[in-house]
Design brief:
single chain, elongated, 69 residues, mainly alpha
Length: 69
């Protein structure tokens, strides 16, 4: 099994341009992962809202709740 250290050692063996390309690919994949995760959460929340499991609140009410934590 690869470890982070061994993976980083392997990456550092690549030329500069390849490392730059790898960095860009990883950043784009992370962005895509976050988008997908947010989309799944939004779909789940919408279904719960439509089923009456959650209700809409004003931004002011949400901020008050957050401030009381």
């Amino acid at each position: 099994m690869a470890t982070i250290d061994s993976t980083l050692d392997d990456i550092m063996k690549l030329d500069f341009n390849s490392r730059e390309m790898l960095l860009e690919i990883l950043q784009k994949r992370q962005i895509e992962y976050r988008r997908n995760k947010m989309a799944k959460t939004a779909k789940k929340t919408l279904k719960e809202y439509q089923a009456g499991k959650i209700t809409a609140e004003t931004a002011e009410d949400v901020i008050k709740k957050l401030n009381s934590l």
